[in-house]
Amino acid sequence: MSTITLKDNGLQVKLPDGLSEDQLLAFKPFNGHQNWVKGLTKSLSLQAKNKDHPFHPDPYQLRAISVQAFDMFSSGRVGFLKATADVKNGAGEGLPASVFLRGPSVGMLVMLIPDDASSENNERYVVLTVQPRVPVGSLSFAELPAGMVDDSGSFAGAAAKEIKEELGLEIHESELACLSELAGTGRSVDNEIDEGLAEAMYPSAGGCDEFVTLYSHERKISRGQLEEWSGKLTGLRDHGEKITLKLVAMKDLWREGARDSKCLAALALWEGLRREGKLDALGYGPHASVDGVAFSLETNTFGPEFGQRHGKDLDELALFQLSLGILVLGEGGVNRDVDHAEVRVAETGV
């Protein structure tokens, strides 16, 4: 075992036998642009700067790091790393600080729509990959397509690459919507301390640095091609990837993908963004129509044509509202998915 000193902050790091200083510093999750040490150091510095910080009276400090184990990729670079950090305050109180470093990754919500599907039934299918995941003891784990971000650091590029490798589908980066970034634009910043965390989902914040940036893509294909995709074998076989594709109806995704955190997070973001109208530009925003009358799921109100069609008679308005409520809660002909909408006829100009 050897000890090195980081030039940026003078921090001492213990290395296990077989891991050199150059190999450690070339490992981006430890020493890259957006790395664990830099992020932790920034968060710790906010304790003293912000008087409202809960740890301001007795700030914690990063005193040392000990690398316990590492795995090497076939390319000769570090792939994964296990470390512990000594984080204590002046009173000697410590914070849990064991971490598994693997870096960022991406997850893709790929939705396929039969080109002969009517707009009323909102028929769409999500592509899941089924593959061995030895760490969880499974040989057939169903999940959203996902992959690690390579040294280029391009999240959208990594997503497009994984979609091609795992699904065999050519998608340009510009055709991907970043659900994570779209969701972050509406987050409340009241009383929030900006620690510089990525706009992404952290699946295991208690023990791993990994964050997953979530993307979505929607495409119309023929029903015949849709059937061909189900059960298709894909993946880079020479890299040990043995992937089978599984198509799941969007309405069943919450159940079929319940074991996969990427799946649940992407579904929640997609539904929330669509409800708030932030996916309109992508062609699948939260809009509905009932008998030719426009309805917005973002505001739960009708367009101005409602008054033209139904007049200003309050009894007629109440009857129409009740009828729409039945359609929404049941299986009526409401365009787009408005299963959980709270319907009202206010603010329609009638």
UniProtKB/TrEMBL annotation:
GO BP terms, alphabetized: nucleoside phosphate metabolic process; ribose phosphate metabolic process
Cite a single Pfam family from the UniProt record.
NUDIX
Q: Enumerate the transmembrane spans.
A: none
Q: Sorted alphabetically, which Gene3D superfamilies does this protein's record hold?
A: Nucleoside Triphosphate Pyrophosphohydrolase (3.90.79.10)
Keywords per UniProt: Hydrolase
- Cofactor annotation: Mg(2+)
Q: Name one GO molecular function term.
A: ADP-ribose pyrophosphohydrolase activity
Looking at the record, the residues that make up the Nudix hydrolase domain are: 123-207
Keyword Hydrolase tagged: yes
Name the SUPFAM superfamilies on file.
Nudix
Q: Which InterPro entries match?
A: NUDIX_hydrolase-like_dom_sf, NUDIX_hydrolase_dom
- Name of the protein: Nudix hydrolase 14, chloroplastic
Task: State the organism of origin.
Answer: Colletotrichum liriopes
Taxonomy-wise, where does this protein's organism fall, top ranks first? Eukaryota, Fungi, Dikarya, Ascomycota, Pezizomycotina
